[in-house]
Write a structure and sequence with these properties.
- By secondary structure, the protein is of the alpha+beta class.
- It contains ten helices and twelve strands.
- The protein has one domain: Ribosomal Protein S5, domain 2, CATH 3.30.230.10.
- The chain starts with a strand and ends with a helix.
């Protein structure tokens, strides 16, 4: 990742992309109550857009963001304050969040927003933490934050924080967004959840072992997701990302993804996005030169 640079886009927005879990296995419960997992993360080019205005008074405020989340609980505010505390920085910031990713959808939007905040303020405040330290700081905010901090598609283990970069095919995806929010805590606390799956290898995944152990539990408890899953499964290989609610299918090209999107029932939100092995937050030095 040293050759890749976090930067805003041409409009000054810092991008916070969605992720898909292409596979999710639950290996067992740890003594601390968390679960041991295996998963594969890949980004897509559907993003929240964050704007940062540095200030000199040390105040961290969120000017715009999701109405459902009080500013003091928003991960962007918590990430900014965590970076202040870690580095002793006395600068502040005003943050605007253009929220485009659904909450409770398994796309990692809140974690991605936190990671983008860490990278943006690390640069804007001049705190100069290395990526490893930003990832450690991000893990205190949530298990999915490190993969967004590192910005590479990855094989994940532990609670999802032990990451090995991988190069994957980058298909076009149709993503369905059922109108509900799935509680990750409720799914992992459900007595019917598949636990104790045998670990697999990356080679096993690449050969097609790509199940999500949370799927049956989510379908049993969220009828709206189950209905959307049945619709998609009749037309493509339907998958659940994370604990849901979002569902996705890989298509051979954009035209095929757009055609299937045109068939989606009007009451079911959906979007088409391209898989990415590098987070859209990052640019290569060549990209940076082209935008200067």
């Amino acid at each position: 990742m040293a050759m890749w640079i976090p930067r805003p886009d041409a409009d000054g927005a810092w991008l916070a992309p969605a992720k898909l879990n292409l596979m999710l296995r639950v290996l067992g419960r740890r003594p601390d109550g968390y679960h041991r997992l295996q998963t594969v993360f890949q980004f897509v080019d559907r993003c929240d857009r964050l704007f940062f205005e540095p200030r000199t008074d040390g105040c961290v405020e969120r000017l715009d963001g999701p109405a459902e989340i009080p500013p003091e609980q928003d991960l962007v505010v918590r990430a900014a304050r965590a970076l202040q505390a870690e580095t002793g920085c006395d600068a502040g910031v005003s943050i605007r969040v253009d929220k485009r990713l659904p909450m409770g959808g398994g796309l990692g939007g809140g974690s991605s927003d936190a990671a983008t905040t860490l990278h943006a303020l690390n640069r804007l405040w001049g705190t100069a933490l290395a990526t490893d330290r930003l990832a450690e700081l991000g893990l205190r905010l949530g298990a999915d934050v490190p993969v967004f901090v590192r910005g590479e598609a990855a094989w994940g283990e532990g609670v999802g924080e032990s990451l090995e970069p991988v190069e994957l095919a980058t298909p076009w995806y149709l993503v369905l967004v059922p109108r509900c929010q799935v509680s990750t805590a409720a799914v992992f606390g459900d007595p019917g959840l598949t636990r104790g799956s045998a670990p697999i290898t990356l080679a096993d995944f690449l050969r097609g072992n790509a199940d999500n152990d949370c799927l049956a539990t989510v379908l049993a408890n969220y009828p709206v997701v189950a209905s959307a899953y049945r619709w998609l499964a009749e037309r493509a290989e339907a998958k659940l990302t994370g604990t849901g609610a979002c569902l996705f299918a890989a298509l051979p090209d954009r035209a095929a993804a757009e055609r299937l999107r045109g068939e989606v029932p009007p009451e079911l939100p959906a979007f088409v996005a391209r898989g990415r092995n590098r987070s859209p937050l990052f640019a290569s030095p060549r990209d940076e030169d082209a935008n200067s």
